[in-house]
Every structure is written in structure tokens, then in C-alpha cells.
Amino acid sequence: MNVFNFSGGKTSGYMVINYYKAGDLVIFCDTGREHEKTYKFIDDFEKNENISIIRLKYNGGFEQLLHKRKAVPNQFKRFCTIELKIKTCRRYLRSKGITKYTNFVGFRYDEEIRVKRRKQMWKNVTDRFPLYDDKINKQIINAYWNEKPYNLEIPAILGNCTLCFMKGKNAIINILTKYPELAEPWINDEEKMKHTYFKGISIKQLKSIAQNNLFQDIDLSELTPAFSCACTN
Questions:
Q1: What is the pTM of this model?
Q2: Could you give the strand order of the β-sheet that contains 54-57, starting from the edge strand earlier in sequence?
Q3: Could you tell me which of 125, 87, 129 has the C-alpha nearest to residue 104?
């Protein structure tokens, strides 16, 4: 059994289109903090590629997880990825009696460090990195999608959770310069949990920096996450 991790982005979308075979499972674990155009891309993907996406969500969503943990995640305690994506997917597969499978992960050839750092988490589950193995890089993927009749309508930095701390403070400031409305749920998280996603500074403060033009504004399409995570692009 092959299981594809589909993040709702161009890289994992390319992987599914080019390596999927009938009978394989394609799973999107929805954190509830994805950009609205990510959901549009997933809808367009299903319509155009005729490939069904299994959409999963942690019981109660992002906010329930924070309530359960009584904290917000951070770079050193990334329980969000583990619970919202990895374990949510695992629970679904086990409910279907699937315990042994090949896990397709969309790490590219230019993301060797992500491949090397990936740890095998489950017995009887084998990770496979087809894009890395076939030397598929970001340039190849972007060129591919530029020829398609539909595309992801946001910069790659807005993929996965909109203000994920793994993107880094600088990237989030730049994002909030253009999309200040994205800050609200993240600010609410910090105020309710009385913890911050970044040590020593809150999302509210990062938004203030962005609004007061205290940071250099750059093209979001040029931004990349500051830190590597298990979430695929």
C-alpha cells in the first residue's frame, strides 16, 4: 500500500500527479490554519487530476489541541505537526486496518537536509522520497505548474499553516506587511494560552513591527522557511 502525504502545495501536488497509481491513498491533514487559497488549490486539483483526496482533521482542530496541551507549540516543541498531521494520518490508516505501507514524502532534490534528517517513526512504515531520488528540484516543479490550467494562487511561503513559527520571525513580519488579517487567530492563541510562539516576542508585536514599516518589505515569492519541518510543500 502506498500513502501520499499531500500538503495542498505545488511540490506535493507534483509528486502525487507523477507517482500516483490506482489504489494508492492521498491524504491531506487539515490543520485548520491553511490559507483559503490552499483549499481552493486542493479542490482544483481533484477536479483537474481526477484523483481523490482524503481530507482529515484532528478532533476539535488546532484550538482544541492547544487547549489540551495548555500551551502553543514552538520550534523546540513541535507537537502541532506530530498531532495534527502525523498521528492524525496514522490513526485514520489504523482505523482502516492499514499498518504496513510505503509513505511518499514530497522532499525535493534541493532539500537534501530534510531527507537526511527524516527519522523513521513507525514500524512497518517505509518512507520514500521520489522527488529527491529523481532529482526533481524547485525550478522543475515551478516550470511544471506554470504550464498547468490551474495553480496555487499564493506564494509558497504561505503554504501549510499561514504563520507557522517554523517560517521564522522575519518571514512572518513580511507576511503580515501584506496580510495583517492573518495574525488574528495566532494572537488569540497566545493570549488564551499565555505563551508565545517565539521566545521573547509575540505575534501581536510582530504585527506591530510590520504595520509600522519597521522591517524591509520584500517579495513574498522569494521567501523560504527559516527552519525545516516535517510538513511538505
A1: 0.89
A2: 54-57, 25-30, 2-5, 101-104, 125-128
A3: 129
What digits encode the pLDDT tens for the residues 128-169? 999 999 999 999 999 999 999 999 999 989 989 999 999 999
Residue found under cell 514524502: 105
Domain ranges within the chain, ordered by starting residue:
2-146, 156-222
- Whether 175 and 158 have beta carbons less than 8 Å apart is answered as yes
Q: Kindly report the number of other CB atoms within 10 A of residue 132's CB atom.
A: 20
d(CA 41, CA 13): 9
DSSP state letters, 139-178: HHHHHHHHTSS----S-GGGSSBTT-GGG-HHHHHHHHHH
The stretches of the chain forming alpha helices (DSSP H) are 10-19, 36-49, 61-69, 79-80, 88-95, 112-117, 130-133, 138-146, 169-178, 184-193, 203-211
Report, as an integer, the average pLDDT of 104-121. 92
Q: Residue 161's closest CA among 87, 225, 71? A: 225
Residue (of 127, 153, 156, 154) closest to 139 by Cα position? 156
Average pLDDT, the chain: 92
User: Buried (b) or exposed (e) across 94-117, using 16+ Cβ within 10 A?
Assistant: eeeeeeebebbbbbbbbbeebbee
Q: Which amino acid is at 149?
A: P
Fold of the 2-146 domain: Rossmann fold (3.40.50)
